Automatic annotation (TrEMBL):
Native organism: Friedmanniomyces simplex
InterPro entries per the UniProt record, alphabetical: Cis-CaaD-like, Tautomerase/MIF_sf
Limits of the Tautomerase cis-CaaD-like domain: 1-97
Name of protein: Tautomerase cis-CaaD-like domain-containing protein
SUPFAM superfamilies per record: Tautomerase/MIF (SSF55331)
Length: 192
């Protein structure tokens, strides 16, 4: 459902990409009720691209994300999401960490911007029409039979998703949000 796209000028190792993709998947799916199967993360090396800021040639790392926006997602949710992503980047790639091998110690490894684009008009993924933001529970309920059929048919992605939905109790609507349920299960936040 969301599509996160890193444009990086510094070389990222496979393990850094793996860690960033896992972190963003966890952050987004925890913040909202999106199953992990539908969180997409892509990396593009733009070290050869010509980028200008204020008319001056610059190199920088950026993250663009196409997300579903709606009344169920408040500005505070997006601020928290970007803050968590920034913290993940700093931990995995950030300045001063020895994980980035570089010939020039002055290379800027910071994440210059995180841009969330919430103007998705329509999307299908894996053959399913993606619901509007906040409609995930009903969407899961409406498609549950097909998700299970695909899982039982051996589709590893849907096996993973069906297991996750059950573990996180994403389809239960007892007045507790998916975020609160996950935080409680992990011993985090006010819900713990």
């Amino acid at each position: 459902m969301p599509f996160y796209e890193f444009k990086h000028h510094i070389p990222l190792t496979v393990s850094q990409k793996d860690e960033l993709a896992a972190a963003i998947t966890t952050i987004h799916s925890t913040k909202f009720s999106t199953p992990k199967l539908f969180v997409n993360v892509d990396f593009h090396d733009v070290s050869q691209a010509s980028t200008y800021v204020g008319g001056q040639r610059r190199t920088a790392n950026h993250l663009f994300a196409h997300v579903r926006n709606g009344p169920s997602r408040r500005r505070e949710d997006w601020v928290d999401l970007t803050s968590q992503i920034q913290q993940a980047w700093d931990k995995i790639v950030g300045p001063g960490l020895p994980k980035v091998r570089r010939a020039d110690p002055d290379v800027d490894t910071s994440l210059r911007s995180i841009v969330l684009l919430g103007s998705m008009i329509h999307m299908t993924e894996l053959g399913f029409t993606v619901p509007a933001a906040g409609g995930d529970v009903q969407w899961l309920q409406d498609n549950w039979e097909e998700f299970n059929r695909r899982a039982e048919g051996g589709d590893e992605d849907f096996k993973f998703m069906v297991k996750e939905v059950k573990e996180r109790k994403l389809m239960e609507t007892d007045g507790v949000s998916a975020q609160q349920k996950l935080e409680e299960a992990l011993g985090w936040g006010d819900s713990a």
